[in-house]
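Consider the following assembly input.
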Amino acid sequence: MRISELSQLSGVSTASIKYYVRAGLLHEGARQGYNHTEYDTSHQERLRLIRVLLDEGGLTIAKAQTVLAAVDAPDASLVEIMEVAQRALPMSRQPASPWAVALVKEACSQRDWIVEEGNAGIMMVAQVLDVLHDLGRLDLLSLLPAYADAADAVARADVGAITPVKDRAGTANMVVVGTALGDRALQGLRRIAQGNYVRREAAKA
Amino acid sequence: MRISELSQLSGVSTASIKYYVRAGLLHEGARQGYNHTEYDTSHQERLRLIRVLLDEGGLTIAKAQTVLAAVDAPDASLVEIMEVAQRALPMSRQPASPWAVALVKEACSQRDWIVEEGNAGIMMVAQVLDVLHDLGRLDLLSLLPAYADAADAVARADVGAITPVKDRAGTANMVVVGTALGDRALQGLRRIAQGNYVRREAAKA
């Protein structure tokens, strides 16, 4: 198909398609002659992944390049792709205190979780603990086990859904998409469920 | 205390403190005479809440005004404060398809969740379903029950932690802080737990 058809099918403008090719996110089409480059369904699939990374994941072009390079690397393991995807997703640049990091690591080892050094999640949780400390609300640490149980159940389901996929590109795609979309799904469901419990409490009172 | 001491104790610059007063986020201090305004611990506590809204919640000044107005309203119920806080937190402006919204509502009613019209979570989850549809990955809908179970458990813990607080300001504070921080804690824990399960799968293979 020509670039105009690819644009129509993918909902991505021809200018953006050309930009993604120049930035190395999308592989070039086959040149058929002057002003005619042929694209196929592999470009369509790749554009879907690129849009998820940029729109859903909120990645910069540079971060998307890093993730897609991992997806494309013939020898990258699933673990490596997941770590690259996790690190590329936007997160706070603030450092966490050694106290908070130690607390998170201790909580993980109590659950017998295998934790790699530099996992993006450690800093995210540690920063939350620091804020609770600053707010004088360390009583809320009592919620940590409930949150960790929930995260454990979701992650087990996530990884269970990933492993049955056999082809590498599909797996990589799913890990990247799942990391970004799963966060949002969980946030949304938490808000709905909070609404439910607050209303039930209000009805009781 | 004078503004310089308040600045030092709160870690907020005097320029920002003055700005928050002008913007109506922070109540004025007591004027003691020319160039001397007296602040107290109520200002310190309010500054903490403001910083959480702006830094952790990622709220704009305008959105923070809305949330703080709900916190200050003498007759606002806990349900109302929670809804205002949930809606103020940054989220995608994209609409969701009627198909996805209906699917989310159906999943909620199957769980016997009381869902208010316009809950921020419905659109968040529906948008995720739309993306999965566009990606041709509706098979991942099989994960929805695991996510909903996890969200249910976390929300029950959230609301259980809120209700024991007796004073209104403390409750409002906690709802606002908890909505923003809880998302981040859950995201981080999910990443750590994913790392654990992926490594265990890799070890098995």
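Chain B has a mean pLDDT of 84. Ask yourself how this observation constrains the way the partners meet.
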